[in-house]
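Lab notebook, page 48
Experiment: co-folding of the full assembly
Goal: obtain a model of how the components sit together before planning crosslinking
Operator: M.T.
Materials (sequences as entered):
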Amino acid sequence: MTLPVAVRIARRELRGGTRGFVVFLLCLMLGVAAIAAVGTVRTSIEAAIGDQGAVLLGGDAEMAFTYRFATDEERAFMAARAAKVSEVVEFRSMAVVGDGETAERALTQVKAVDAAYPLTGEMVFDPALAPVQVFAPADGIPGAAMDPVLADRMGLAIGDRFRLGTKEFRLAARIVREPDAAATGFTVGPRTMVRTEDLAGSGLLEPGSLFDTNYRLLLPEGAAVAPLGREAVAAFRDTGMQWQDARYGAPGMQRFVDRMGSFLILVGLAGLAVGGVGIGAAVRSYLDGKVGTMAALKALGATSGTIFAVYLIQVATLALLGVLAGLVLGAGAPILAAPLIAGALPIPVEIGLAVRPLAEAATYGVLTAALFALWPLARTREVKAAALFRDLGPGRRVWPGWRLSAVLAGIAGTLVAVAVGVSGVPELAFGTLGGIIAALVVLTLAALALRWFARRMGHRARGRPALRLALSAIGSPKEEATAVILSLGLGLSVLAAVGQIDTNLRASIDRDLPEVAPSYFFVDIQPDQIEGFLARVKGDSAVSRVDTAPMLRGVLTEINGRNAREVAGDHWVVRGDRGLTYSALPPERTEIVAGEWWPEDYAGPPLLSFAREEAEEMGLKLGDRVTVNVLGRDIEARITSFREVDFGTAGIGFVMAMNPAALQGAPHSWIATVYAAPEAEAAILRDLATAYPNITAIRVKDAIDRVSEALAAIAKATAIAAGVTLLTGVVVLIGAAAAGERARVYEAAVLKTLGATRATVLASFALRSALMGAAAGIVAVAFGAAAGWAVMTFVMEGTFRFEPVSAVAIVTGGALATLLAGLVFALRPLAARPASVLRARD
Amino acid sequence: MNETILSLEDARLVLEGNAGPLEILKGISLDVARGESLGLVGPSGSGKSSLLMLMGGLERATSGRITALGHDLTALDEDALARFRRGNMGIVFQSFHLIPTMTALENVAVPLELAGAANAFGRAAAELVAMGLGARMDHYPAQLSGGEQQRVALARAAAPRPAIFLADEPTGNLDAATGEAIMELLFGLRDRHGATLILVTHAPELAARCDRVVRLADGCIAGEDRARRVKVAE
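Observation: model returned without errors.
Model output:
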């Protein structure tokens, strides 16, 4: 057996150091580190969510309702099964300090709790008081707690008074930690916390007001959560009840972490693929330099198998080294940055070492290294002893043979299987890997096309030596062009995709807003207030437009008598409750695209007008019967028309509108949008809030800022992950330029001998780099756009628009980077004396 | 045959080695006449190839003066030297030094293109046909045998019709028969174009074909034999 011999020879060769393998090691290390780091953070967050499920949720389980309290039947159901029940009410309102002209108003997310709150975890206040002390009345004024940000903004000190609706409260404490904060999800305003009973008489929880109730259940020892959940869902689903339990304490956050984590790992995987091209190129270049050694070994009696083993052992050893370094970096960086990361998260997370994400990253690293290194390695078998006498190089890039092809396909298959299995988002994983493979194929074709083009154009460039030299270098059978275009193109594709996603995310807010967005959104206007409300705003010359609509919320439960979810699948309209309005006439600026609106005085069975696009997506036709559950009551209505509704205008838009008779009897409130000149906004808000303290005004600009912040955070995480890919790309690029330096030195020497000036040589090198960079860049833009579209459409569920500035910047950057790397590594060739270079080759 | 085409005055070459400066050529003075064939012989390390590189402007003399075709090579910078070589010097190496990314035809056309010659490719093709490589024009160097590669290198050197041919052991990497054929071609080129040929060689029979043979030893000229070929012929 020749293995021991191979090991001995490999060891002796490795003694020479890892100089030729710096790029190899860096590529592998960066890719593995990125995946390991994302995995480590994700595992820590998931562990925190899992461990603290009950605390995050505020109980073992939760039954949630929209715009109503639980019915007696529902309360009885909970009381019979839970050891303890706590009721939490959430709604938006305005906190007000002072009166008249000088009043301060701020939007706040109110959380009203009962005496049992919190069932799990602990509220932390500043000063350190128990909830019962915080909410206790002093001088007949009930206590409240506030987010310090809100208290500071309103200039409230402990003991100061403020109003919610018509009710006065006293700031008793600032909120330091709210154990179940993550359960609330996205909010528009900072928190104010009060006792529910103290809101009586505030005018805020009237019928038709927009509020959520959450009933947290603490189950008796040993009670199983899952069957109870099934029982509750079966009993109350059609009333709009939503069930959550501690297995998924923060489902919104869990889903976000899952999706974001998978997405970032796939970005990391794309980075590893870029690195893979660098790995392949490094191995090929190293082996090219070893042809002499291989030929000598062959001449001395080594078989092809022995030689293959010698270099396989070396590459495998170095791959393990690279993976190990990547794991250390990937696990170490998040632990070192733990205070920073934990500070940015809404729940307490302890970032520590976890085996699973590291094993995952190592698996990706080993498989990628194998996938990209085996082919060049296999070519060592083709080196003939004759290479000692002639400059043969390892065999040309030929079909690697069935056996190796099968092995490579097996490795690629395993890689896909692992990525799909581990990510838990198979469509995303398939999409990403499919994209990478497609990009590699297209880039290979682009390289072949460029080489063909270079050979064809070579004749035309006759007489222009710099251009012809560049073209013949690209078109030659040496594979430099393919390697450069592959590595650069893949790196640029990932960057272009991330660039498209990033700019789209940032632009989505601006872009989706119309030229004129409303200044304020008013909610919770009671039916008896709407007239006064309109009188105030319509009489104001600074107000250009006012839209109002009655608003109810309902759950679309059935379509033509069948469960809506079975008919429409997971469409967003049937997920949870939706806004619903009624109107005798088609609202202004409404375009009926099919069917007819009901007569103004229609009083027959309920009729419905549905949003055109959503109806199409759900497969609804005119005449279909739709059942909507409004506050526990089922209303079946027939669809008589479809309307165009633009949900991107920040104005009022309802998927469903019914005839007045169908809904008028149900408790409801009105919403309004007011378009006013900026200088008049404050006065309008002051007058309305003073006249109707229960009304909540949401400043559209503030709400948009909050959404922008959330999107910016996503864009930032994506940009960081992409940064690693960029770094890998740069390493690969520098590696490719460095690997080409030896050949370049030689070419420059020969050309100078034949009479070429340094300018001619430099121009030829620059043209070569620029041509290859441009080819890679063009493919990258196309691929980046395709990938950006896919991610924006399917992952972010947003709209995509091609962003030419980012695309052009990336292509230019790519071409410039290639040019720069090429030129930096052209300095030595240009400076070298031909005599010494040529003699060294003799 | 008395016009001096190439002249060296006390040319010295000192290279920086790992163990300090290394004096390769220790003051060479030599005149070469137009149309003459000059053989440079001597043991390995005697400085033959370095001397040839100095003559071709591929290496810069540390001191002394080198004049070729009336140009002071020691006063020219790198690019001026490159321009001077166009059309004036054809250089052939032991290892051929073809550009691996170019076909035989493209390799031969390069110096013509650099010199801005009209019909560079037509002339290159004609040169290759003359070398018996008409069927191999579109082959890359790696697809050619050693003898064929050296014939391409010869064609490349000859295509611009240089006044001076410099050849550094042009048959060193070839078998005897192929080497002989290459030498026939080389001397044939010189005879056809009336060029000057300066040849570094280890082969006594090759040196014997030259008008004059300069023997180098340890960086100095150790002796000179003139017109032996003529004597033999007599």
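Interpretation: Chain A is about 55% helix and 15% strand.
Next step: discuss with group before ordering constructs.
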